[in-house]
Design brief:
It is a single chain. The protein is an alpha+beta fold. The chain has four domains: about 5-245 and about 305-330, 3-Layer(aba) Sandwich (Collagenase (Catalytic Domain)); about 350-430, Sandwich (Immunoglobulin-like); about 440-605, Jelly Rolls; about 610-700, Macroglobulin (MG2) domain (Immunoglobulin-like). It is built from ten helices and 35 strands. The strands form seven sheets. Strands 1, 2, 3, 4, 5, 6 and 7 form a seven-stranded mixed sheet that branches. Strands 17, 19, 20, 21, 23, 26 and 28 form a seven-stranded antiparallel sheet that branches. A hairpin with a 2-residue loop joins strand 34 (about 680-690) and strand 35. The protein is elongated, with a radius of gyration of 31 Å. The two termini are about 60 Å apart. Mean pLDDT is about 85; it is low at about 1-20, about 610-620 and about 665. It binds zinc ion.
Length: about 700
């Protein structure tokens, strides 16, 4: 068995990056086993015992050449999704079940492609997979669960904590959108499994990419024909890769411990039928690229061997391995030999996966109910018009601002089920109450629950961070490292802001970023977009790469983070085209290249002061605010000579008026002293109205 350390794997991949950019689809099981072993070195003994066992069993049982009875394994698919294409259909899962059963009973239609040299060792494994018909509570199930979670995007092992059924009774298969494990720009992991000797009650089962389940639906065009799960189920039943030990030594006590699979030096990609990577086998045979346990395309794979059957038989004969999964007790518990009709489980989302809408706007809903055929729908829309609906895909108008619940009750002859999503629809005012200018320093610990929204997946994605920031007590980070899926993207969306308040003053979006690439020639991307329709559609203003403003060229350091202010830079985008928008939202989308995190702070929407001054008459007053930063007292000096002075307002970063001081100054005042002792540390604006024009000055209070 080949167990790499992670650093070794990374070194090898980096060394070939420049010559080999083609992406290989691989299995993550070896890497997974290596990690389990590292976490629990005592596993070495169980692996050693297991290898001894299959070594003896494969020799013995092949000689017996037993023709057994079909062994039935109850199966459950846990689809983890965010209502995207990864929420695969029941039909696609049933197609996968057909493929599994054909492969494990040598009923696959392409057995004729098995080359004549291997036909005599091709084996029927006598294994049948059946979807569970009872869940662990005894409820009727179609053997498919569906769970909403952003962990579908690279969550890997973490998805097992969302839902798992007893591993001695069910084969748990988690279907997810991306597998982060060991993925690099040159390799993509399609699935990984627990071998019987590497398992426990919390980890046991298979994780597979949604796009590689079956051969229809989202799997169309992937060239694998459902063979990925055939391969991973082989691991779950105790089979190693044929290249496990390279050319290895004695076939019965090294490599995959099976003698009728010729040794293979390295994984086969594509369908290389002339390959013969090892010459130490007797007789010397070509590589068996058609074996399901190698890495060739699914269209190339069409066989297991009798030796592999012997190993699977060994696992079925051992209570510590897979015997319990095919027991009468498991069959009864999971109801696999019954065919009940189940009541449906209510599930829904908006049709476009967007849950914000402008006041007066429409939202279309989509039914995602499962586990049974729905005979009637009963929707309730708080704050919506109409407030109820009996159709499967209603469109609802929302006239009042706020957060509203949505309820769906589905019914059939077997019963009914109700799903309520509280505060699901966020109806944003036509004119946002959030004034501009804006200075968002992410100082408020509740900023992500009360106004902005951040997307994250487990340890990756946007988070508020207090340890690394430009100034103040906190900033934001899009956490990315070598374990982050290449191309995964994470969004940070602002509250809506009324930009029209600074109309005519060249409104600008300014923000501080800090970034260095982790890998030479590779850069994370930060795309800044705006929405003027309450998040229904977005328009990209700019996509920043390392060389186009995000970072500093030629500085590459994995795990880099800023430690001093000079390592941050300010980026500025013109918002003039949106100056009439009264509810503008801003989105920062960080795209991973499996390199480094992107740090963000001080997202400000500002009126251009120069433009403001230009708007005043030529002999305009000057306005100064000092000291800045201030430690308790701020002097605002204004030359109001000949001007119509209408007062000063002190605003918070969210536009809230903290002080309105128009009544305590008169036309002759040229200097106003404002005591800031009662303010918290942070950023404030002095808004001065002179001759009908607004002038805005930012100041910082520090104690
Ligand atoms: Zn594998």
């Amino acid at each position: 068995m080949k167990i790499f350390s992670k650093s070794l794997v990374i070194m090898c991949l980096l060394s070939i990056t420049n010559v080999l950019m083609a992406q290989h689809n691989i299995c993550g099981t070896d890497q997974y086993m290596a990690e389990m072993l590292k976490a629990n070195p005592q596993l070495l003994k169980s692996i050693s015992d297991y290898n001894d066992g299959i070594s003896k069993a494969s020799d013995f049982d092949i000689r017996l050449n037993k023709k057994g009875v079909t062994r039935t394994i109850p199966v459950v698919f846990h689809v983890i999704h965010t209502y995207g294409a990864e929420n695969i259909s029941k039909a696609q899962i049933e197609d996968q079940m057909r493929i599994l059963n054909e492969a494990y009973q040598r009923l696959n239609k392409d057995t004729s492609n098995t080359r004549s040299i291997f036909k005599s060792v091709a084996g029927d494994l006598d294994v049948e997979f059946k979807l569970a018909r009872k869940d662990p509570s005894g409820n009727c199930t179609e053997g498919i669960t569906r769970t909403y979670s952003e962990l579908t995007d690279g969550g890997d092992e973490a998805v097992k904590n969302l839902i798992r059924w007893d591993y001695r009774k069910y084969l748990n298969i988690w279907v997810i959108k991306y597998i982060a494990r060991d993925a690099t720009p040159t390799s993509r992991v399609l699935g990984y499994a627990t071998l019987p000797a590497f398992t426990n009650s919390t980890s046991d089962g298979i994780v597979i990419l949604a796009d590689y389940v079956g051969s229809i639906g989202s799997a169309i065009g992937n060239n694998n024909n459902g063979a990925t799960l055939v391969h991973e189920a082989g691991h779950w039943l105790g089979l190693y890769h044929p290249f496990q030990g390279g050319c290895g030594g004695n076939c019965s006590n090294s490599g995959d411990y099976i003698c009728d699979t010729p040794p293979v030096d390295e994984p086969s990609y594509g369908c290389p039928t002339t390959n013969n990577t090892c010459n130490n086998d007797v007789p010397n045979q070509l590589d068996m690229v058609e074996n399901y346990m190698d890495y060739a395309n699914g269209t190339c794979q069409n066989m297991f061997t009798k030796g592999q059957k012997a190993v699977v038989d060994y696992n079925f004969g051992n209570a510590s391995y897979r015997a319990q999964n095919i027991s009468t007790a498991a069959h009864t518990f999971t109801g696999v030999f019954t065919t009940p009709t189940c009541s449906a489980i209510a599930d829904f989302n908006t049709a476009n996966n967007v849950i914000t809408v402008c006041q007066g706007g429409n939202v279309s809903f989509k039914d995602y109910s499962y586990n049974g055929v729905v005979s009637s729908y009963d929707w309730t829309f708080e704050g919506g018009t109409p407030a109820v609906s009996g159709t499967s895909a209603p469109t609802i108008t929302y006239n009042g601002t706020g957060l509203y619940n949505v309820t769906l009750k589905v019914t059939n002859a077997q019963g009914s089920n109700t799903k309520v999503v509280t505060k699901m629809i966020n109806v944003i005012p036509s004119v946002s109450l959030n004034a501009t200018p804006v200075a968002e320093g992410f100082e408020n610990a509740n900023v992500l629950t009360t106004s902005w929204k951040a997307w994250e997946t487990g340890e990756y994605g946007w988070k508020r961070i207090t340890t690394t920031k430009y100034e103040g007590n906190a900033g934001m980070v899009a956490t990315i490292d070598q374990g982050t899926v290449n191309n995964a993207s994470y969004s940070l969306v602002s509250a809506p802001y009324n930009l029209s308040l600074i109309k005519g003053r060249l409104p600008k979006l300014k923000f501080k970023v800090a970034y260095r690439p982790g890998i030479t020639g590779s850069t994370e991307i930060l795309t800044v977009s705006v929405s003027s329709d309450c998040g229904q559609t977005w328009r990209a203003l700019k996509a920043y790469s390392n060389s186009s403003g995000l970072g500093v060229d030629k500085v590459v350091e994995l795990g880099w983070k800023p430690t001093i202010q000079s390592e941050w830079k300010e980026l500025i985008l013109d918002l003039s085209a949106y100056e009439n928008v009264k509810n503008l939202m801003v989105k920062f989308e960080a795209r991973s290249r499996s390199g480094n995190s992107i740090y963000l702070d001080n997202v400000n929407i500002e009126a251009d002061l120069a433009a403001s001054n230009k708007l005043l008459s030529p002999n305009t007053s000057t306005i100064s605010v000092y000291p800045n930063p201030s430690k308790g007292s701020v002097t605002i000096e204004i030359n109001t000579k000949g001007k119509s002075f209408e007062g000063i307002k002190i605003l918070s970063t969210t536009g809230q008026v903290i002080e309105n001081i128009e009544t305590i100054v008169n036309q002759n005042d040229t200097e106003f002293n404002f005591t800031a002792n009662h303010l918290k540390e942070g950023i404030y604006f002095a808004q001065i109205k002179l001759d009908g024009q607004l002038i805005i000055k930012k100041f910082i209070v520090i104690f």
